Amino acid sequence: MTTISTDSFLTQLKDSKILAANELADIEKVISRSPNLTVDHLSESLIEKNLLTTFQKEKLFKRRGDSLHLWVYTLLEPLDPEGEGSVCRAKDKRNREEVVLKFLPERGSGVLVRSWKQMQTYRDFKHPGVANIYYLGQIKNRYFLVRKYFPGKTLQEMVQRGEKISYQKTATIGYEVALALQMCHEKGLVHGLLKPTDILLTPSDQTIVLDVGMAFLMSSKQGQSFVDTFTISNHLSAAIDYASPEAIVNPAELQASGDQYSLGCILYTCLTGRVPFPQVKMMEKMAAHSYDVPPAIESICPDCPQGLANVVRRMMEKTPGKRYANMDVVAKALQPWVDKNKIRSNSSLPGSSLHDTVQIRVGGSTTSIPRPPVINSSTNPAMWMGVGMGVMALLGGLMMLMAR
Description:
Layout: H1 6-16, H2 21-33, H3 39-48, H4 54-61, E1 69-70, E2 73-78, E3 87-92, E4 98-104, H5 109-123, E5 133-139, E6 142-148, E7 153-154, H6 155-160, H7 167-186, E8 199-201, E9 207-209, H8 226-232, H9 245-249, H10 256-272, H11 282-291, H12 297-300, H13 306-315, H14 327-334, H15 353-356, E10 357-362, E11 365-370, H16 381-403
Antiparallel strand pairs: 1-2, 2-3, 3-4, 4-6, 5-6, 7-8, 8-9, 10-11
Helix pairs in contact: 7-10, 7-14, 10-13
């Protein structure tokens, strides 16, 4: 039963700053012309016209309209599984773009400064497989970050719903995440807390990595252990199922190798439908990541190819040195089981120009030439000579062009 009057509802609507002045004026006219209009009918009408969301309606009915407005953002609906509002879809009033607001545990000013510097690097990073973070800040006692919004569902949602994730789809997801994280790592960006909620599949079947850099917000001082971190924030409780042994010991010193271990745990979960170490107690889980071996994938998922199981097993090695050299090598290892339509040639990889061309400067101008292929010692020596002569000829031609 509705416990708010039409006048109070209108006041809450104004306080929420959800609607523009002209839209509020139109609603006031409707109310004045329809004295028998109930709040329920009015709110449902606004929802049908996409002027209001169910989440916003509930807040307004509870007389908490002012909580729907944060700086230049209007909260639309919660995205966290529990619906507590720690992660919300929102709209930027300046450009009407939909974004995601993630509310963070209270941190010291020093942590925010250190994290902001990290985020500045991340803001300048562009990759189609990574959700960009736009802003990190504090208003009153609320700490939050803003990132790009993508429609779709996370791997966590798929696993919780019991959706079948084939080994081909698992390999494809791992392949795309590995390529995205490789570009992050080359820019000095480490995820640090990768888990199924951080991997999203869009309706067009694109894989997006979320919350790169979030781990820097979750440890307040150098050398802080995962145990200390967990006492600060329950937001990390889900991460322990996918945390690398080195991250458990010292999450303040994030390593690219830790992202590889976490991705291996995620692929293990996709293939088997269970986490590698399902122990109940947190301390037992942390110890298992450091010392135990999970049940073989093949024993739980018989249709998984032995080769793919071996790749995941190597990604989950306890010692970083026993894992793959980097995420690029991980992607190549997964490629035999990847959807062929998803395999990208080196020339089409986002940011591949950093690797496939050489910047040269001739006559005051800069241009790019193809990078010579990497040739190992077993290659025919004649090929070395051919490559060298080709590059020299290309350089000579460019110099002649610049001299004209």
